[in-house]
Write a structure and sequence with these properties.
The chain has helices spanning about 1-35, 45-60, 75-85, 105-110, 135-145, 195-205, 235-240, 260-275, 275-280; strands at about 35-40, 65, 95, 110-125, 135, 160-165, 190, 210-215, 225, 230, 245-255, 285. It is an alpha/beta fold and about 290 residues long.
Length: about 290
């Protein structure tokens, strides 16, 4: 009698367990059928996707979940590439980067790149610094250590504190438009790991000079200003004319095997940016659609 009851109980428990497994599988299937499209990567490109998000969601008919607002605290471009490589059918993901990628890296990681915009790299000084313009050569002389005092450039008798954020050292472009390699920068400098730290350090030192992308929102506590270079402001118009020399390329990246729907969404992002207010707000130069690699 006891044996029979025990067997019955085991059968009932097994049935219940199988039922729970089926329910769990069904729930997961439903979740996958309606999954979000995930995007992750560099903060400066996240700014663009965050602004474009409502239109992209409408185009895709699916929600987007974006990670990158806090990526200025870490290696955002690497996170973007990782997100692109993790793309899977029915659980799609893409990345966004703030540095150009070499052909070798694109091939190695099996990526497709969707250029979005050129972003001016701002040359920052403290707000109290009376200098408002440098030549490109003067800026390079400061960052390389050939010039050590603002007095040499017609400014106050004040030692120059060079602040750098030399991220993505193996990738072309970005800060390399200032100097081509990390060892070309002055040895005695303040190295920071984030854009937020860059702005804070230039705020801290009245004699400081630094650099960051234009797609940055400065807080009222930030006592910094952007210099013109060769009497040209860091604007999209001057980038287009080749008059402003320091810039980088913001891009989206997907897996080479991304779905046609995801590829279409990235192309749509390129198209949207051309007439979107976020490009004007941050003085970005949108790149022509259809430039995916």
């Amino acid at each position: 009698m006891f044996f029979c009851s025990q067997n019955c109980a085991q059968v009932r428990l097994a049935g219940l367990f199988c039922g729970l497994l089926l329910l769990s599988f069904h729930a997961n299937s439903q979740e996958l059928d309606n999954t979000v499209i995930t995007g992750a990567g560099a903060h400066f490109s996240w700014v663009l996707f965050d602004a474009l998000k409502p239109a992209l969601e409408e185009h895709a008919g699916r929600p987007l979940k974006l990670f990158g607002e806090e990526s200025m605290l870490g290696a955002g471009c690497n996170a973007g590439i990782k997100s692109a490589r993790q793309d899977q059918s029915r659980n799609e993901s893409f990345g966004f980067v703030c540095c150009p990628l070499s052909d070798k890296e694109i091939e190695k990681e099996q990526l497709r790149v969707f250029p979005l915009a050129l972003e001016p790299i701002l040359i920052l000084t403290h707000k109290n610094n009376p200098i408002s313009n440098l030549s490109a050569q003067q800026a390079r002389d400061i960052f390389s250590g050939r010039v050590h005092n603002w007095r040499e450039l017609g400014g106050p008798d004040q030692n120059i504190v060079v602040v750098t954020r030399l991220h993505c050292k193996q990738r072309p472009g970005h800060w390399k438009t200032i100097l081509p390699e990390a060892k070309a920068f002055r040895q005695q400098r303040v190295n920071v790991k984030s854009a937020a730290d860059m702005v804070d350090r230039v705020t801290d030192f009245p004699g400081a000079i630094g650099h960051t992308g234009s797609a940055w929102t400065f807080s009222p506590a930030s006592r910094v200003k952007a210099l013109s270079i060769d009497n040209h402001a860091p604007t999209a118009a001057n980038l287009e004319k080749g008059l402003y020399p320091f810039y980088r390329q913001l891009s989206a990246v997907t897996s080479k095997n991304a779905s046609p729907e995801l590829l279409s969404l990235m192309t749509y992002a390129q198209e949207l940016l051309a007439g979107h207010p976020v490009a004007e707000e941050y003085q970005l130069l949108p790149l022509a659609k259809g430039l995916s690699q």
